[in-house]
Design goal:
Number of helices: 10
GO molecular function, one term: ATP binding
Protein name: ABC transporter ATP-binding protein
Helix content: 25-40%
Mean pLDDT: 92
CATH superfamily of the largest domain: P-loop containing nucleotide triphosphate hydrolases
Bound molecules: adenosine-5'-triphosphate
Order of helices and strands: EEEHEEHHEHHHEHEEEHEHEEEH
CATH architecture of the largest domain: 3-Layer(aba) Sandwich
Low-confidence stretches: none
Family: Belongs to the ABC transporter superfamily.
Keywords: ATP-binding, Nucleotide-binding, Transport
Strand order of the largest sheet: 6-7-8-3-9-10
CATH class of the largest domain: Alpha Beta
InterPro entries: AAA+_ATPase, ABC_transporter-like_ATP-bd, ABC_transporter-like_CS, P-loop_NTPase
Strand content: 25-35%
Amino acid sequence: MKVTFKDISKQYKGKYALENFNSELENGIYGLLGANGAGKTTLINIFVGILKSDKGQVLINDVDVRSLGIEFLSHIGYLQQYPQFYKNFKVMDFLRYMCVLKDIPKEQGEKRAKELLEIVNLSDASTKKIGALSGGMRQRVGIAQAMLNDPDILILDEPTAGLDPQERIRFRNLITKFSENRIVLLATHIVSDIEYIANQVILLKDGQLLKQDSPQALARGIEGKVWNVTATENTIEEKLKHLKISNMMRNQDGIHLRVINDEKPDAHAVNIQPNLEDVFLYYSGDGERW
Ligand SMILES: Nc1ncnc2c1ncn2[C@@H]1O[C@H](COP(=O)(O)OP(=O)(O)OP(=O)(O)O)[C@@H](O)[C@H]1O
């Protein structure tokens, strides 16, 4: 399976939400990473056909999705940002309902729904009302419905919003489980959602593709630009004003700053290994400059 985004642009009131976006995806997990407003949802909405681009094409295995018509839908599973569920629906009944919408034959749907409830660890909750579930459980119902048609491409828009750390980990593991032999596109602004599971990270800023590479290669790309700087109460204000800082920790020997800077920021600065959060800040954020 291959997905190609070709020269995709979308404007709102003369401002680009997405500008000449080009990318190619093959099987694996792709983390679509960008700050709020970077254009992630716009790209996903164009991909799933909710939104029309002003320009460009989405291709599946080199075929324009517009020429696939309704068949296109059989290829994708989609979990939208902030999914709205009918709270009075029971979990299994909701999945049955989604099977009808997805035109999945009854027996096949019933079997698949049960299998998926097992995988997302919700078998015991199958007769519970969705309104009575925790946020994490609801997201697991969301991913189960997205997987009902056994899609080649799974698209998840900010799927971990509102989840606690444990639910987040569980959800990440599920995504890895579901990524075998398919493309998973996961939009997020939370680096830890994708740092250890994405095969590739697509870095988006102001509607433009900044970088697409593996998390490891992206981190290697900024080697020599991340520093540990120790500040004192007297020097901290000055450093906060001028340096891009990704982390700050007060210790007995001073205030340790994780600084992102092309040059050595002071004589005692020590070079440290970059991580994906540093990459994100290096390319797309302003860091914590006060
Ligand atoms: N319907 C709309 N009308 C006008 N502007 C819009 C509309 N939808 C999106 N935008 C603008 O397009 C840009 C990209 O928005 P988009 O929702 O795609 O970003 P995002 O990366 O998904 O952000 P978030 O993480 O906050 O959802 C933003 O500047 C946004 O304000």
